[in-house]
From TrEMBL:
UniProt cross-references to Pfam families, sorted A to Z: Fungal_trans
Swiss-Prot/TrEMBL keywords: Nucleus
Molecular function in Gene Ontology: DNA binding; DNA-binding transcription factor activity; zinc ion binding
Organism: Cylindrobasidium torrendii FP15055 ss-10
Superkingdom: Eukaryota
The protein's name: Xylanolytic transcriptional activator regulatory domain-containing protein
Organism placement in taxonomy: Eukaryota, Fungi, Dikarya, Basidiomycota, Agaricomycotina
Domain Xylanolytic transcriptional activator regulatory: 27-150
GO process annotations (BP): DNA-templated transcription
Amino acid sequence: MQREAQLQDTVASRYQFPEPGLRTSLIDLYFVCRNHFIPLLHRPSFKSSVTQGVHLHDRGFGSAVLLVCAIASRHSDDPRVLLENDTSGRQSTGWKYFIQVPAFETGVSSWPTLYRLQCCALAAIYTQSRSIPLGFWTMSGIGLKIAQDSLHYIDDNRPSVT
C-alpha cells in the first residue's frame, strides 16, 4: 500500500500539465469539438475531478487529462500547444501532452481500470488524427484486450436481473 502511495505521489512531478487557463480551454474544446462524436467521457464528472485536482494524484486520470489536452490541441489556436521551436506549422499540436503518457503500464497499475480503457480510446483518437495511423489500430487493439480482461473481474455471484 505504501509503494502504491509513493507511485501516486509522483504524478504531479512526472507529468507536465498545461497551465490552468490553457488546460480549462483545452478541456472545453475537447467536449465541444470531439466528445459529441465519440461520447467517451462524462463532462460534469471529468471537469469536477480536474477542479478537485484528481489528475495531480491519480496517474490514470492524469493520463486521461493529458490525452484530452492532446486531442483538443488540434482545435486550438494557442501557440502553447505546439512544441518549442516548432517550425513545421501545426504538426506538433498536442504532441508534448501525448508523449508523456506511457503506452503500457506494468505492475499493480496494469489491472484493468476505466481510466486505462479510456486512455486507450483517447490515444487511438489522437493517433488517428496524426500521421501515425498504425498507432490507431494498436491502441484500439490494446483497448479491446483491456476490455476483455476486465470481464474476468466481474463477480459471477452477483444477483441476476431476471
